[in-house]
Amino acid sequence: MKNSHRREAFILTAAIGLLGITFGVFADSAEFSLAQAIVLSSLTFTGASQFAAVSVIESGGNPVTAVGSALLLAARNSLYGPLVAPLLRSPSRIQRALGVHFVIDETTAMATAQNSIEESRDAFWFTGIWLFIFWNTGTIIGVLVGGLFEDPSVWGLDAAFPAAFVALLMPHLRTRAKKVTAFIGAGITIVAIPLSPIGLPVLLSLFALGPGIWLQYRKDPQ
């Protein structure tokens, strides 16, 4: 069983590493240096937030809006805490801190798919370590070859990560409340794009949480 989930995790992390190359290309097009891109991938280590920040900067947005958009997208990772907390118990503060850094979509998905706490812990760490390696390696490669692309969007690279993010999002839209939240959030973003500064539409979509929470509470007040 261990070999099975490790094999699946390795394939997943390798595929995400290819998206890391896409991020590196876009970081280069936004005039990020190699060092800046490496620091962003190492310390942020969540692709959606990184793409959001770079996209805002590349489009002429200010750093405050870029950080706000990135933080909004990263906030979802805090919801994974209760799911992975039992896997991060360790007397080592360094190991706990590293584990918290690895709490993202892919590690949580692999960990929660296992049948025992031991397999879940192994899947979490195996996925996290290899994903960190592949993502940062992909970032470096992307920045180094980024100069070969005058306009990354011509190659369709600008759609690669959004498509992958939507693919990760779809399995979570199983309840009416979540579907309504996603629909309203998308609507707010579409309306706000031509009317507000770059990066702000993503922040405004946060208001979609209100109706979603209301629907969820109405269905299950307990």
Query: Helix proportion of residues, in percent?
Result: 55-70%
Structurally, the number of domains stands at 2
Q: What does the overall shape look like? A: globular
> Strand count, sense and closure of the main sheet?
none
Mean pLDDT: 79
Radius of gyration: 18 Å
Characterise the protein shown here.
- The protein has 2 domains: 2-170, no CATH class; 173-222.
- Helix content is 70%, strand content 0%.
- The chain is built from 12 helices and no strands.
- The chain has helices spanning 2-29, 34-43, 47-58, 63-74, 81-84, 93-101, 105-112, 117-145, 160-169, 176-192, 200-204, 209-219.
- The longest helix is centred in the middle third of the chain and has 29 residues, at 117-145.
Q: Which helices and strands, and how do they pair?
A:
Layout: H1 2-29, H2 34-43, H3 47-58, H4 63-74, H5 81-84, H6 93-101, H7 105-112, H8 117-145, H9 160-169, H10 176-192, H11 200-204, H12 209-219
Give keywords.
222 residues; 0% strand; single chain; mainly alpha; globular
